[in-house]
Every structure is written in C-alpha cells, then in structure tokens.
Amino acid sequence: MTFKLAIADVPFGGGKGGIKINPRLLSKAELERVTRKYTMELIKKGFIGAAVDCLGPDMGTNEQVMTWIKDTYMNVKGETDINAEGCCTGKYIQQGGIGGRAESTGLGVYYCTRELLSYKNYCDKIKVTPGIKDKTFVVQGFGAVGYWASHFIEKDGGKITTVIEYNSAIHNENGLDVEAVKNWMTEKGTLVGFPGAVETETKEPTKFLEKKADFLIPAAVEKSLHKGNAERIQVKGIIEGANGPTTYAAEQIFLRRGIVAAPDLLANGGGVTCSYFEWLKNLEHIAPGKMTKKYEE
After folding, report:
1. Which of 42, 77, 97 is the last residue of a domain?
2. Domain boundary among 97, 113, 128
3. Looking at residue 283, what DSSP letter applies?
4. Pairing label, strands 199-201, 136-140
C-alpha cells in the first residue's frame, strides 16, 4: 500500500488492518455491532482520524460499513475534531462520500489495461495487436474490482470469457455478458446455472484460472497465482486487480515464460486515488453538489 500510494503521488501512509470474520455469515445488525466496536477500539488507541489514519474500504466492506465507522467516530470525536468526517473514505455520498468511489479501483484496472495496450513495444513483447477490442480476458473475483474492470473492458470491445468466484466459475470462449453475470451472482449467490455458460466448475473454481485467453485479471485474494499453478497459466499478460495476487515464485515462472504482469502497485491504484479526493473534500468542508456546480459553470 505504501509503495502504491507513492506511485499514485497520494500523501497517505498505507497501513492495513481488519477483523478476522466472514461477513457473509453475519446479519446486518451483527456486522454493524462488530464495525462500531472495532472503530471504538481504534478511537481508544488513537489509531483513527483525518490527520492520523484515514481508513479506506477493502475486502468484505462497502459504503454501509464505512458510514458506520464515520458515524461512530463523529459520535465520539465530532465536538472536538472539526475534520471528523474525514476519518474514513468509501462512505455513502450523502454521508460525505464522493461519486465514483465504488467503481474507481476497477476503472483504474481498465485504464491501466487500455494504456498498456496502446504501447507498441508492450504489444510486440506479448505478441498481440494494440487496443482492447476483441481481446479475451479471464477475471477472478466479480466484486467491486473485477466487475467494474470487466464492465469497462466490455464497453471497449473486449471479451470476458471466464469468470471465477469463490464458490463457482464459468467459461464461454465466445464471451460472457458482464451485466447478466453480475445480476445472476447477486441474485443467486453462485454462478451455477448461468444460461450463458458453456462450462461450469464448482469443486475447484480456481482451476479456471488456467483457461486460455489473452489476459488474466486476478481481482480476488492475494497469492492466487503461485508456484503450483503458474506453469499452467495460458495467458500473454496479467493485470493485477487484487493486492499481491502473484507470489515471488510465480513471478519468476512468468518471467521465464514471457508472460508480462502489470503490478498491483500501478494497476489497482484507482481506489486510493479516489479515496484521496474524498478525504480532500471532507477537509475542505464542501457541501454536496458544490463541486459539480462549479465544474458545470
């Protein structure tokens, strides 16, 4: 995180912290109590604040969780800290958030892919034609990062041929409809039975990382690409959407095989960049709509 923020030229430190739970197994009320308790512990220790540590969203969190953090902090410190609203980012827009935060990391992955494919020396190295159009992609993780990256790639003419989730994976070499896959996953909680799929895997979804395509976007958990599967990966380039999806051993194998990986430090910096602007907005105490109005004028 520290190096990523330095590359993006964002003046944050880049710490990481969290709670070891599975949010899928908790009710909304339980998740709220856990979040507020965690925030209280951070407040007690002086580990949170706009000028101390501005928390950003990551795995297992959303706008609601970040808004609970802000609300708890403001209840305790609101009278003494004028910048209390800036204690975290990724909040609901009406709670001090900023437009575009939800899609920012995935959009950053898309921008990185688009830029890379505009350079002739990169395209020559991995033996592809310039541009996203008609390129095929394997995407691991269809949450905020994987979905939005796929959404923008599809709009640019790219084909998402494989989608891998934690409990299932689907493949269609002619391409999958990104919106339909997202809606199916949201509604059913699994990719099983998706009508556009030619192949489905439930026992070992990560096996589909080895499907043939032009690019692989690992946008789920760290260490997805490792010594055990790196030899079987059949892509020309990797765009790292998750934090640390490739182990050192896997990287050495990819270098030997001529597979070029765009590092997470660069590829998924869109989220922290957007967080920075949300933090600035909170410190400036600008009312919602004012910046848009100024821009439109």
Report:
1. 97
2. 97
3. H
4. unpaired
Q: How many CB atoms lie within 10 A of CB 1?
A: 16
Distance CA 14, CA 71 (A): 23
Q: Global pTM?
A: 0.89
- Closest by Cα among 142, 149, 148, 145 to 163: 142
Give a yes or no: residue 292 inside a domain.
Answer: no
Our count of domains for the chain comes to: 2
- Containing domain of residue 78, as a range? 2-97
- Condensed to tens digits (0 to 9), the pLDDT of residues 32-44 reads 999 999 999 999 9
End-to-end CA gap in the chain: 36
Two tokens, residue 286 = 């600008």
Q: 289 in a domain, yes or no?
A: no
- Catalytically annotated residue among 4, 16, 135, 212: 16
Q: Which residue has the tokens 């690409």?
A: 225
16 is an active site residue: yes
The answer to whether residue 16 scores a pLDDT higher than 90 is no
Summarize pLDDT for 208-263 with one digit per residue, the tens. 999 999 999 999 999 999 999 999 999 999 999 999 999 999 999 999 999 999 99
Q: Is residue 124 a part of any domain in this protein?
A: yes
pLDDT of residue 290: 80
- For the sheet with 199-201, list strands across it: 199-201, 169-171, 159-164, 136-140, 215-218, 237-239, 260-262
Nearest alpha-carbon partner for 39 in 79, 66, 64: 66
Chain-centroid distance of CA 197 in Å reads 24
Are residues 54 and 155 located together in one domain of the fold?
no
Among the ranges given (11-15, 80-84, 196-200, 232-236), the one the predictor scored with the smallest mean pLDDT? 11-15
Q: Report the amino acid identity of residue 123.
A: C
